[in-house]
Amino acid sequence: METDALTRLSYAPLARRKVYRLACGCSAPTAAWEPELVGTSTRPYGARGTGMVAAQVIAADDRGHGPTIAAMAAFLANIGVNAAHHVRSPLFSDGSFVVYPIPEAMPWAPPMRRLPGVWRDRAVHLDPDLDADPPTYGDNCRTAGRAYSLRQAQPGDLIFFMARLHPDSGEPPGFFLVGSLSIAAIKSDVCEDPGLGWWDGNAHVRRARAGDSWNSFWVFRGDRRSRFFDRAVPFRRPHAEHVFGPTWDWREHRTELQTIGSYTRAIRRLTGASERSLRELCA
Fold this sequence. Notes:
alpha+beta, three-stranded antiparallel beta sheet
């Protein structure tokens, strides 16, 4: 079944943006990156019953990424296809890019999404979905060790996303900061269908409604400042040390890419000077 909605998967400037028609369907969760596209299911949903935290969003400049509440923290999450996949997320010469989602482990079923031009008939997990209204990001903060730090997230915090990109010039791949979500509300420990709401389009909700378990995942709603960047921001050793300090072990037998990938496999929570340094990189 084809959905009537067209969802952009290219986060490059207008001249490079591509539009893909996606098929609606349900998918299973994946251990690594769990993003999905939004869609609307026609069947009724279950009773509400999960907790939610929200904060009033105040006006702020998109590029400033100013906090909506005091004592803001930042989180760094590694997303998109990686070295284990045959699909590659490209980086173009002008700094624009495309981040491709990972495939789901379970077969496609409504209301999951597909990206035939990239993953053929496999269901895809598009998360975060920063082009949606509202933008969302979901993760297994209760059951997946890599996401435990997100249980400390509060409305007003920022989640920055980094991805492995392959330059079209033929240069080696690298990690780049590609977008951010400014948290406006949190749906925590979703253990049953919460009914219709702003979370409907999130990949985790779609997958669960397609037949997978409601496994206590969390969903984060972003405010209007949430976006993919127009240009990818390099994240190499000097940038990592600027944010994290001289705390990482850069072993000679490992490449810079391997070291950064290893230290960012789990979502990192940053406060104080580290949080400000990460925001400065993306300003």
